[in-house]
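Re: [help] complex structure
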Amino acid sequence: MLELADYTFYFLALVTLVGGIAVITAQNPIYSALWLALTMVSVAGVFVSLDAWFVAGVQLIVYAGAVMVLFVMVIMLFDLRRETNAFSRGMVSGFLKLASAGIFLGLIGGSIYNSAETVFAPPPAELEKTADATKALANTLFTKYIFSFEVIGVLLLVIAIGAVTLSRVQGGTHAKHD
Amino acid sequence: MGVDAFEIVINVVKLLVIFLMMIQAVPILVWVERRGSAFIQNRFGPNRVGPLGLLQLLADAVKFLFKEEFLPRKAVRFLYYAAPVMALVPGALALAAIPLGPPIEVSAFELFGQRWGPYVFKLQGYDIGVGIVFILGVSSLGAYGLLMAGWGSASKYSLLGALRASAQMISYELALGLSLVGILLVYGTFNFYEIIAQQQGPLSFSWFGREVVGPWWLPNWGVFYNPVGMILFAASTFAEANRLPFDLPEAEGELVAGFHTEYGGFKMLMFYIGEYGHMIVASSLLAIFYFGGYGIPGLPVEVLEAKIAAGTSLGPTGVSVLTSVVSHLALLVKLGLFLWIFIWVRWTLPRFRYDQLMDLGWKSMLPWALANVVVTAVWLLLANSK
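Output below.
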């Protein structure tokens, strides 16, 4: 017997999957980005249905609200037709695409295989609600996983510095004109 | 939704009423904006239709409804029509999560030969434990409405407006979120009701192990703990709502009307409702975080309820309803004040240049907000230590 929560989940899962497929089938990069935004919103919905309100809120703020808006903006600014052509033909790029898809599949399969116990275990009977769950999340993040948290922070800083450096080298978007 | 028919009906009615409140506030705000701007600029403003020009709203609504509907020739049909809705929805969703008064306690009663209750109805669309995270998340989706409008109407002015809008929203969202972190550290909770409860009564805090209590008339408001955060939050909400001095997305001197250049009639009205909705949400958040929410200074909710119970001959349900209504009016007074400040600033300050806007967001407000977080954390650590 399906309950309301099941219907919600299947609806959100359907939207996520349709959105995800539409991201890679849409011809215009703008529509791809908008579909991706829809996918992220529905993933936030899945988090809500799991009572993970804080994660859902952060998903909306960071991914749907900031990252995707930035993507859409950048795509609107650039004429991507040449890049699209460069990436949609040729043996080398086809091979690269296949290889990266394979690596990605391997990554997902590997992470599911390695965390099978957590993924397929039945949910804990007493789920902590809302504010307490946020506190528990913070406690785990800043005690048990503090090292990986800091490493990811440094990694993001490196990426940001790298992006700024790349844009300032000769021929970049912010190159210095003498 | 609720355990029985009565609760479900009330909850659905609540959602509708809060949505209609937002829609109905817009014509009044437009009138205040037009009359207010006229007085600030030494003009008369709309004063012909009805007393004080108040019926101008009705005339405008009729005009908006009956305007010719058109689609620019190269527009993307779906995006063009979806954008106004997308601009309206985030504001409405965020407003429904804001508590507009203390919960109403309805004691058990008999109706249609059946026993109902007791119930507790919250004066808000839906209660979400992490309140502020949800509201920030939902209102950050507002940028899509502008982006879709800009791309969908296939016009250079619209596109430029949309690009400016999204860059500005992303820049100021950081300062907006960070400015709230300071006050959240003080309260130690995301829940609006707990935040408002902590601001009742006179100013009181612990200072190196000593309890300091202020005079009874000085309320325990967040603005006294975190004034820098309040200023940063208020300034970044101006940018988020695209109001002057941050209204570069629709700068009429350069971009005609920015992202809604190609919109007319009711579709443009929906953009307006979205913008005013953002203003109402921002004002409510300002009231909740820094000015005691629905609390009346010098008169905590419990004291108010006791006074109403002593002064009237109402039952417990009636007392609870009256307390909520009075508290809600207190919130409305604060909202009105903040909304007037929004309008006042719009007609007082000139518009920023674009590079000034970005400099202010990234090089001034973001560092100040970060410093505010650090200082608040250190202060809390010191003040609460023995």
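The radius of gyration of chain A is 20 Å.
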